[in-house]
Amino acid sequence: MAVHLAVEGHRRGLRTLLIDIDTQASAAKIMDRRGDDPPDVTTEAAGRLDKAIQAARTHGYDLVVIDTAPQADRAASQAAQLADLVIAPVQPSIVDLDAVDTTIDICKLAGVPVLFVLNRVPSKGKEAAGTEEVLRKRGMRVSTVRWGERKAFKYPFIKGLTAQEAEPESRAATEVSALFDEFRIPSATHVRRRAVLPAHRRPGVSA
Hints:
Shape: globular
Strand content: 5-15%
Order of helices and strands: HEHEHEHEHHEHEHHHE
Helix content: 40-55%
């Protein structure tokens, strides 16, 4: 999800940096297959994330996407403390729901809003509706956009591409665009105009 959102930010004219703090560096490896094609990517230890974001501001990035490991750990907590918004993918399964409370606690302690996004949703079944109901009962914000279980989210990674690049007319591409729209990130022109203000904090998300 982080890779797709970073590429979408770039496609919309935002100078985008993807910071991968997962020790497996899966997102960075995918992005490396793009060669010199943007957006930019870097790996970083969670303990140095603050300095990495400061450097990103200095170098004029409009959007920073932080990719964390798929568990709510100390590194995720450090990322949440620096983010403007946490994107929490959740599959419609009891395993993912069992991990929700830890994510909620991390975001509450960090004082950062969290948006849960249903991911890998099957085309049939009631699991997605049940998962969303559980999240809303816990007072959580759930995205109106769901990402389906689609091949277009996976096979393009072989070449470092994303769904919206490999299959721009696909449902997967539409879902990426719709989710990015939900963030309401200012346009590149608006962001850069405001960047002259010393107190301005550029938009960033942790996925």
